[in-house]
Design goal:
Elements (H helix, E strand, L loop, with lengths): L1 E3 L6 E7 L3 H12 L5 E4 L16 E3 L6 H21 L4 E3 L2 E6 L3 H12 L4 E5 H7 L10 E6 L3 E3 L1 H14 L3 E3 L4 E5 L4 E5 L3 E9 L5 H7 L9 E12 L12 E4 L7 E4 L7 E6 L19 H10 L3 E15 L6 E4 L6 E5 L9 H12 L24
The chain binds flavin-adenine dinucleotide.
Flavin-adenine dinucleotide (FAD) binds next to helix 1, strand 4, strand 14 and strand 18.
Length: about 400
């Protein structure tokens, strides 16, 4: 597909490299906020399944212990609503999100504190109450507690990226898929060479997902070795009684242990009768060799299901791979190139960036257009990794 206004000139004000959710949101935001002539480049065909933004569902929530994510999500909820209205498409389904784990989980405690501080609508209850509320679904050990954040829910991922790309081209942006960027030559006018031709722009935004570290290295930015690209194993499991796991009776959920949230899932949403239950992290892969690893080890997830869920099969019915690009602190990089101020990076969303994408698009637009950023970008700085790498 080639969409948008075609043009004889190959000069742009801004080029966005990578049409996952972050790049598409950024390109759309640029067309609404004075970005001028904007080109969005994608190596594969639009809405492909090789990166991080495909699939029928992503969890959305304000339940973060970091204040900056709660603030970003407050705006993201509004921006998703605006995208739904402009795109005349429902993308968000409210289910609530249930977080549960041992009472002594530091992660759970900090998240509850954050919800209280920020006035986010939620309820906290013990394991007994949890099993009364979800009698057909949950087995909770007595030392567990739960928090239900009311506005948590599901974003329809591929559909959302498609709507955002459509709005981008309707606003005058140009989208070229099937264009792999091979070389970037920095300068006041940046030259972007693809396998289909050469494009120039005054500004470049790189939102290349799992491919970002390699592209950044060609620009002299060597990310630390701990910037991991991992294949996430998205698994769907059959519910014996689908009515117990429909989104109107059972929420999205996340399990927290002492310091992490190793498992998460969603009620039946994409495939009839199938609940989505997944481990958060998995094997490291190179993005172009994602499927060369052996089939996923599902043992941990099976044990999690057997321990916590009622009436869910422990044999997976559907498996769909996806890639997570994880930074050491699980915060993304949203920053300018240290030497070339007209090149901006948005990468390393560490398995939780979908819900944030409209706000990320806004911030990357501000950085690229030299506007004051709406948020404190300290948690997302590039040089916070300098302790891992002397080359930054
Ligand atoms: C299994 C799974 C579950 C997740 N669950 C959640 C969740 O519940 N909630 C949530 O908020 N987030 C979740 N996430 C995270 C979220 O989906 C990602 O943070 C987000 O999709 C990252 O988007 P991206 O645009 O950075 O990357 P991508 O979607 O990978 O986009 C990057 C794009 O750049 C293109 N590209 C790369 N190199 C080039 C090149 N040389 N030339 C042209 N194009 C190029 C790629 O082809 C790709 O399309 C999940 C992720 C996974 C994998």
């Amino acid at each position: 597909m080639e969409s948008g206004s075609s043009s004889s000139s190959k000069e742009y004000d801004v080029i966005v490299l990578g049409a996952g959710v972050e790049g598409s949101s950024t390109a759309y935001n640029l067309t609404k906020n004075g970005g001028g002539r904007v080109l969005l480049l994608e190596q594969f065909s639009a809405l492909h399944t090789r990166g991080s933004s495909h699939g029928g569902s992503r969890i959305t929530r304000r339940a973060y212990h970091e204040a900056y994510y709660v603030q970003m999500m407050n705006e993201a909820y509004q921006m998703w609503g605006q995208i739904e209205r402009e795109g005349k498409t429902q993308l968000y389904t409210k289910t609530g999100i249930l977080l549960f784990g041992p009472k002594n989980s530091r992660e759970l405690k900090r998240t509850i504190e954050s919800l209280n501080v920020h006035g986010v609508d939620h309820e906290v209850f013990n394991a007994e109450e949890g099993m009364m509320r979800y009698p057909h679904q949950l087995n909770l050990p007595s030392d567990h507690k739960c928090v239900l954040e009311k506005d948590g829910g599901i974003l329809n991922a591929t559909k959302a990226v498609g709507v955002i790309q459509r709005l981008f081209t309707e606003n005058g942006g140009e989208f070229l898929d099937g264009h792999k960027v091979k070389e970037i030559t920095p300068g006041p006018i940046i030259r972007v060479t693809t396998d289909q031709g050469v494009f120039t722009a005054r500004r470049l935004i790189i939102t290349a997902g799992a491919w970002a570290p390699a592209i950044m290295a060609t620009l002299g930015v060597h990310l630390p070795f701990k910037f991991e690209t991992m294949r996430a194993e998205v698994l769907y499991w059959r519910a014996e009684h689908p009515e117990h796991y429909s989104p109107d009776v059972f929420p999205t959920f996340g399990m927290y242990d002492a310091t992490h949230h190793p498992f998460y899932g969603l009620p039946i949403f994409e495939y009839p009768g199938l609940v989505k239950i997944c481990a958060h992290m998995s094997v490291c892969v190179k993005p172009d060799a994602r499927d060369e690893q052996p089939s996923p080890d599902t043992e941990g997830t099976k044990q999690f299901i057997a321990k916590y869920f009622k009436g869910v099969s422990t044999t997976p019915s559907v498996y769909e791979p996806c890639i997570i690009t994880k930074t050491p602190d699980e915060n993304p990089i949203i920053a300018r190139h240290p030497k070339h101020a007209n090149i901006v990076f948005g990468a390393g969303f560490s398995g939780h960036g979908f819900k944030l994408a409209p706000v990320v698009g806004k911030i990357l637009t501000e950085l690229a257009l030299d506007l004051p950023p709406s948020y404190d970008l300290a948690p997302f700085r590039l040089d916070r990794f300098s302790k891992y790498s002397s080359k930054l």
